[in-house]
Design a protein that fits this description.
It is built from ten helices and 17 strands. It is an alpha+beta fold. Helix 1 crosses helix 2, helix 1 packs across helix 3 and helix 2 crosses helix 3.
Length: 313
């Protein structure tokens, strides 16, 4: 009875996190009808309604929300027990949930593939995310971040991995229309592309200071979109050199505003504190470091050849 209920609680968590029975079915490969039957079975066993569900509404009841939290704790404990058993053998295995910036998607996937060839029992759940990350809420084992790392928190450990060269780029046609400017003072906001959310554009970070951008031609939530927009000629973008090196080589894009020097960006590996990081995640981070040492690419270079002092975030 207890084992069956634990299984039903697991499927309940999957349905809640997917936001619907259909979403959970797509995510897990289990039929929608089977999931609905398991949740109904759980409600009968607990003698409580867990979900309000009709054609317009899918939400947890108050009791359902409390049971969800307890179920999540139970599942996390079960996963921790399995990881403990795996780590006893120091064998990289199991699922790693990680996030990475969109501009590093190719490098990240290439690195995961090489790691998986050496550790075939490892699986990955990858999210491409350019904004702020919350490892606990997103249940991430590891996150790669190009954002600044605060130093006033003890909930994360930040490991500097590499330095990314940033460049300003645009199409040859756009640069011709703008008279090939050397400095950003000669370019209006309407010809610039930048990251941001809603109506809050991020400034460009230059070695001489910040270039505030109030009315950009495009405001995007990820670097990949900025790069695609730059390729169309919509405006100039400040992006990692690594991400646009093929565009520069093929002359689809050109370096712009050569009188400006964008600040380099530091790539950090973010993990839970020492007790929360798994052995597999540690091995993946070290694999990333070794890949940077042995296969350095244009625009992305190793920051520390030996494991640096760890900073808490």
């Amino acid at each position: 009875m207890a084992a069956r209920m634990l299984g039903d609680l697991y499927w309940y968590v999957q349905v809640v996190e997917a936001g619907s029975f259909s979403g959970a079915a797509d995510r897990t490969g289990v039929a929608k009808s089977s999931l609905s039957r398991r949740i109904a079975q759980l409600e009968r066993a607990l003698d409580v309604q867990l979900l309000n569900r009709n054609t317009r509404l899918f939400a947890m009841t108050n009791a359902g929300e409390q049971i969800y939290r307890h179920a999540l704790d139970m599942i996390n404990s079960m996963e921790a027990a399995l990881l403990c058993a795996l780590e006893t053998n120091n064998t990289a295995s199991g699922l790693i949930r990680l996030a990475a910036p969109s501009s590093l998607s190719e490098w990240t996937l290439d690195t995961l593939a090489s790691f998986q060839r050496s550790h075939p029992k490892v699986q990955f759940a990858l999210t491409l995310e350019d904004g702020a990350l919350d490892l606990a809420t997103q249940r991430l084992d590891l996150a790669l971040s190009l954002d600044e790392v605060p130093t006033d928190s003890n909930t994360l450990v930040a490991r500097p991995l590499a330095e990314l060269t940033m460049v300003i780029v645009g199409t040859p046609a756009l640069l011709t229309r703008l008279d090939n400017p050397r400095h950003l003072d000669d370019v209006t906001d309407q010809h610039l592309l930048t990251l941001g959310t809603n109506t809050l554009p991020r400034p460009w970070k230059l070695k001489t200071g910040l270039r505030e951008i109030h009315q950009p031609a495009l405001l995007a939530d990820n670097t990949h979109t900025l790069l695609k927009a730059a390729r169309t000629g919509l405006g100039l973008a400040c992006v990692p050199l690594y991400a646009c090196s093929e565009d520069l080589a093929g002359q689809r894009l050109q370096r712009a505003c050569l009188g400006e020097q964008p600040c380099a960006t530091i790539l950090h590996a973010l993990t839970p504190p020492h007790k929360g990081i798994t052995s597999t995640a540690r091995q993946l981070i070290e694999h990333m470091r070794q890949r940077l040492i042995s296969k350095e690419r244009e625009g992305i270079s190793l920051l520390f050849e030996t494991p640096p002092g760890e900073r808490h975030r």
